[in-house]
Amino acid sequence: MPIVPLYGHTALRQRLAGMVAREALPHSILLHGPRGAGKQRLALWLATTLLCTGPDDERPCGNCQSCRYAAELTHPDLHWFFPRPRLKDSDPDADDVREDFRDAIVDRVKAHGLYPPPTGNEGIFVATIRALVQTAAMAPAIGRRKVFVIGDAERMVPQEGSDQAANALLKLLEEPPADTTLILTSSEAGALLPTIRSRVVSFRVGTLPEADMRAWLADPVVAERLDKEGVAKPVDDRVHAASGAPGALLAGTSLESALANARRLLDVVQRGDRAERMRVAFGQGASKARGSFSDTLDALTLLLHERVRSSAGRQDERAAAAARAIEAVERAKERARGNVSPQLVTAALLGDLESIGV
Q: What is the Cα–Cα distance from 188 to 167, expressed in whole angstroms?
């Protein structure tokens, strides 16, 4: 069965479809915006539009062979990469990586394209980028072009050999084959290397308005999945919980736990008790729980973004402090991706947040 259709983003879809029709879409683009807003689903829709063989004014037509293949994520010229657990082989070859992604995509199709966000232990590792670059050098299998969707591109792991993953991708972005389009998505565009951001054309993806959010929630496949996950059943509650980001409802208890821990960190900072701050810092996950710690940092970013949005237009100190705090959290994420312990990262971060005045 095809994955759940794309809901919302009407204006941006019209803009992108117009660029495709005029053959004016850049070969390397970045879709960035709030976590859970549907950026990867939008990227897959755009890939389908590019691969569609139907009439130009009806793309994606939904009826041609390419559209049917793309809807089921079986199109051989549509390549979808996203954060995955590190393979057990310390140096997997491209075939191993592609097999891993084939299995992962099959799982996402079985779930109708409804999947939780990546855990902190998942990343886009060097072997994945090598496989991507190698595949990009090949000719399209059945069409005139091939399309790569790279979801959560900020999850490229930079500490492996002096930014190997990012640099390998950079070479491809600099000189993509004429028959290749690369679509990156990111909830943290600022975490991408400046050399990557400067080589892609960026498009902002916003959250869904309430009408589109309700249409998504009314989809029978979505409703069945949320019921199974135990998400609050009243539609109004689901609309409120999502805040325009459908993916927020698919995060399950992991997001709730991460948000609770992130709120605890902010509460400790506001109380200003240094001893308590150190106790909380050294209570953060050990290396075996590094994934959940990364989820906490992601949740902290979400909470701080909410503060910025709630203060938009008022230009008060609270909004400015939240913006500076987001930068501090991004620095903490960089340290957490390395070998620095979560406890030391948290201790430094809480000190930074207190000095900022969050």
A: 18
